[in-house]
Fold:
Amino acid sequence: MVGRLTVITGPMYSGKTTELLSFVEIYQIGRKKVAVFKPSLDSRYHSSRVVSHSGNGVEAIVVSSPQEILEHVEEDTKGVFIDEVQFFPKELVDVVKKLINDGIDVFCAGLDLSHKQNPFETTAYLLSLADNVIKKKAVCHRCGEYNATLTLKISGGEEEIDVGGQEKYIAVCRDCYNILRGRS
Structure:
């Protein structure tokens, strides 16, 4: 029996990692063996834990490349959880395909769009393969409505891969994004 792919996506501060952690907990309560991964690029909150903005977290295996994930998945693993998939190269897609074809459920969380509203390639591929997609929203930093679907960079350069938190990024709705970018 093949596994299933669930992708959790949306802007920053929408609860993607919190949702991923809730699935980890469900598998652990069910006494299913899990493996949790995070990219080495992301050390914002903790070097070896997947941690939400609220501080909840679980131990994770830090990997530099998608292939390393396969080295850490054991025969009796039932669920693989990968955070911040936008920081991985497209090769992650082949790793995920192998895992689900081997009967392992895979849960991925990551940004779908950059602060320039460009799709992150790896996330886009995973979304197209997903059995389940959970599209999260956040509270708009500007207007306070629960309709933020975009991330706006408020400091730093224009590069699209730039790890940061509240000092660099806010979640905004489309109207506020356009206002703040001077497009109103």
Remarks:
- The helical segments are 16-29, 67-72, 92-101, 121-129, 174-180.
- The chain has a mean pLDDT of 91.
- The chain has one domain: 5-136.
